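Hi everyone, sorry if this is the wrong subforum. Our group has a chain we'd like a structural model of before ordering constructs, and none of us has done structure prediction before. Sequence below.
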Amino acid sequence: MKTPLTVAQLKTLHRQLGRPLRDMVRDNETEFKDLGLSDPATDETAIYAAIAEHPILLQRPIVVVNDKAAIGRPPESIAALFE
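Answer:
Right subforum, don't worry. Here is the predicted structure as tokens:
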């Protein structure tokens, strides 16, 4: 990602997804473990800040249509945005 999302943009995206915040995080990345994000007690503020600072942690692809978003895995999940 050339231009990382801000915390405010991440919060908007989270709302648009309508899913738990941790669904937006790539938990297989080294940074996830290094930053201690695997701890279930990690609060949302820390998770937003970690994604903003380390955009590799953001799940992708994420497709946004109007005011709704979907994570593109599986690809079929995107179809609901067009219904």
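For your construct planning: DSSP finds three helices and two strands in the chain. Residues 7-17 form the longest helix (11 residues).
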